[in-house]
Amino acid sequence: MRKSKFIKSTLILMIGGMVTKILGMVIKIVMTRLIGTEGIGIYMLINPTFMLFITMAQLGFPIAISTMVAKDKFNNKNLVFSIIPISLIINIMTMVILLLGAGYLATNLLHEPRSYYAILSIGLVLPFISISSILRGYFFGKQRMIPHVVSNITEDFVRLIILIIGIPIFLTKGLEFAVAFIVLSNIISELTSILVLFFFLPKNFSISKHDIKPNRGNIKEIMNISIPATGSRLIGTFGAFFEPIILTFVLLKIGYSNSFIVNQYGILNGYVLPMLLMPSFFSMAISQALIPVVSKSYEDKNYHYTKNKIKQAIFFSLIIGIPVTILFVCFPTFFLQTIYNTTEGAHYLRVLAPLFLFHYIQSPLTSALQAMSKATSAMRGTLEGTIIRTILLFSCSFLRIGMWGLVIAMATNIIYVTCHQFIMVRNYLNQKG
Q1: pTM, entire model
Q2: Contact 388, 413 (CB under 8 A)
Q3: What is the C-alpha separation between 342 and 58, in angstroms, rounded?
Q4: How far apart are CA 160 and CA 141, in angstroms?
Q5: What are φ and ψ of residue 107, in 5° steps?
Q6: How far apart are CA 345 and CA 266, in angstroms?
Q7: SS3 of residue 300 by DSSP
Q8: Helical H runs in 142-279?
């Protein structure tokens, strides 16, 4: 029964992930065609900041909610309603930080004043992302994957329409306003997602005073899971946040122009990485379906079943990853030309594609550690990988090899973290027999 439910959940998430990945690629194509490489470069410069503040605002609550709901030992409504007020308080704090620091970040750290309005816009988007993520966590814990899939597809479709209509209008006011609009478009798309998720609640769904009243025990349990879980993501996003800051500082210092940095950073992060991450919809689907299954089986001390599910997740993650990698290595210019109408970045794509096989299995391994309540080990691996990546990025950038310093740092981080998570998962399960 559990096996069929895991396979069913994975298939639903895989199909939904494929559709959303296609929609995401169409969104990226529309953005590229409308705002050009320079606009994409500016957007990619602020994207690590966006990801960092999303991680700070969420604080790992979706994973914690999913894990606790899967155990079926708590009042699930109270879990959700206990944490939403705390989430909103954290969101307000992050909004204030962005409001006060946007100017300094844009001008002094990113050396791109045109990113100011986009950075300000991030704060307005955060509460919507946080609430929709918490609701998704609830449905994941229940192993109800259709609400997540439908909300994601609807969200991307709405965002696509908004961007097609809005970007040309805001471009007339300036490129910086168009980039800020791209960030703000998340408000309407996330609001749509929230409404869709509410639609999937049971027809007899009701809320009592007991459900709404914050439960300290529940909040403590959520924090015990969410803080170590978010620690891992926070370390990774902090590393990504400092990436463009370190890169622009070093490259400007040794003589590269700002236009070269924005252009090449946009090519690598706007064209190459999205293409390399295309197969990740498969591993992400498996990872999301894996959390409640591993959490339940590990809690029940069914370690053999846990081990089999993790092996299965790794195997399935490579089914898509390996053939796609071969295609990217053999025909990089074809895919870039077909999707983005450019051949820029083909050399990056050919070199990074084989290394991203490690990335495709990293997600299920990290999810397994979090589901086994070993999030601290996952966090340690991410921390060590981020430190190595940052040191390599700083030192290799001085070698006057342009963006290749970033490529080297990125590849090393992926290999190290994946190997660390694999060793940790294997050790924990071997200890249990």
Answers
A1: 0.73
A2: yes
A3: 36
A4: 29
A5: -85, -45
A6: 10
A7: coil
A8: 145-171, 175-199, 209-212, 216-253, 258-267, 273-276
Residue 67 corresponds to which tokens in the numbers above? 């894990």
Residue 103 CB contacts under 8 Å (≥ 6 apart), including other chains:
116
Q: Quick one: tokens of 157?
A: 């479709």
Q: CA-to-CA distance for 73 and 76, rounded, in angstroms?
A: 9
Other beta carbons less than 10 A from residue 100's beta carbon: 10
Phi-psi region of 143 (alpha: psi -120 to 50; beta: other; left: phi over 0): left
pLDDT at 83: 78
| Mean pLDDT, range 153-169, rounded to an integer | 91
Q: How many CB atoms lie within 10 A of CB 216?
A: 8
Q: Which two tokens stand for residue 269?
A: 């992060």
Q: What's phi and psi for 280, nearest 5 deg?
A: -70, -15
What is the Cα 366 distance to its own chain's centre?
13
Which amino acid would we find at residue 272?
V
Count of other CB atoms within 10 angstroms of residue 421? 27
Separation between Cα atoms, residue 312 and residue 315, nearest integer Å: 5
Cβ atoms of 287 and 364 within 8 Å: the answer is yes
Residue type, 351: V
Token pair of 303 as six digits? 């370690």
Contact 45, 244 (CB under 8 A): yes
CA distance 316 to 361: 9
pLDDT score, position 341: 80
Dist. CA 41–CA 64, nearest whole Å? 34
Is the pLDDT confidence value at 417 over 80? yes
Measure the CA–CA gap between 160 and 163, rounded to whole angstroms. Answer: 5
For all residues of the chain together, what is the average pLDDT?
A: 83
Residue among 47, 51, 2, 1 at smallest CA distance from 28:
47
pLDDT value, residue 419? 93
**Element counts in the chain: helices (H) and strands (E):** 16, 0
Q: How far apart are CA 138 and CA 55, in angstroms?
A: 18
Rounded-to-10 torsion of CA 216, 366, 236, 40 = -110
257's CB contacts (< 8 A; 6+ apart) are none
Kindly compute the dihedral angle of the four CA atoms of residues 411, 239, 253, 398, in this order, to the nearest 10 degrees.
-30
Cα-trace Rg, the chain: 21
Which burial class, exposed, middle or buried, applies to 171 when counting CB atoms under 10 A from its CB (0-12, 13-18, 19+)? middle
Residues in the chain: 433
For the chain, the straight-line distance linking the first and the last C-alpha, in angstroms and rounded, comes to 24
How far is Cα 310 from Cα 298, in angstroms, rounded to an integer? 12
